[in-house]
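re: ur question from yesterday

yeah so i grabbed the chain u mentioned. its 295 aa long if i counted rite. heres the sequnce exactly as i have it in my notes:
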Amino acid sequence: MLLSGRLAIVTGASSGLGRAIAFRLAVVERADVILVARRRERLETLREEIAGRRGAGGGPAAGGEPGAGRAYVCAVDLAEPGGPALVMERALEVASARAESDPGTAGLYGLVNNAGVTWYGPFVEMTDESLDAIVSLNVRATMELTRRFVRELSARRDDGAVLTITSLAASAPVPYQAVYAASKHALRAFSASVSFELERAARHDGPRFTFTTFEPGGIATEMISTSGLERRFGSSGKAEGVVSDPDRVAAHAIRAWKRGRRVATAGPANRLTALGGRLLPLGLVGRISERLFRP
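ran it thru and got these structure tokens back, copy pasting raw so excuse formatting
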């Protein structure tokens, strides 16, 4: 799967893995990217950083990558009602403007579902607000945006590709992050189920979609501190050996997407963890996980 010159939406692009994926798509893969998150100032900073790699007149900056893609900002809270609709509206505006300036430009092709939140602690202590935040963003908004994306491309009979970032939590129980784990299990099942629907449609002359679910382990991002996980594993800067670098994980995720993998993770330790979560007795996996995440 080639991404160069194509247009992709990346949610949760203001920090962490989403930022790393968006940057790599633009600079390394030379795709155009629509940066989606709540924090406009961070998105503008990333847009400028990507633009700096293009240089004046669209060429490469000194030391930059020739042909780096363009970045477009879409400051939206996906968890709010109407958020996914606003993202698609912005994406279609960008796609239309690109087509007008260059009729040979590829249209909207990719969607990276990365935005997500978690909460750490005993489930019975979880507030209604925290529970609603996870379900609204991780599950409802992701599913709605994917539906709108697939519906739009299907109506145009255009092929497309969806990369959904879940977690190793999609492969095993995660005590003290119960709702987060449930949301990731849900997204894994959702992605696989929709992909098989669309495969059948493609066999009957419908557009072709590639669905990839990528399950990273721990990543050194601000989610560690905002969720309270730093109480257990230390801050993102001190969790060395427990979490991975976002740029490295982004490279693995994009590689799996380009290869059309249905489900993938990065590194032998993570692959072994995912396999163990599916093959070992649930009681054993759950007790190990409870001990690992116990506050």
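noticed a couple things. The longest strand covers residues 32-37. also Residues 279 and 285 are 9 Å apart (CA to CA).
anyway ttyl
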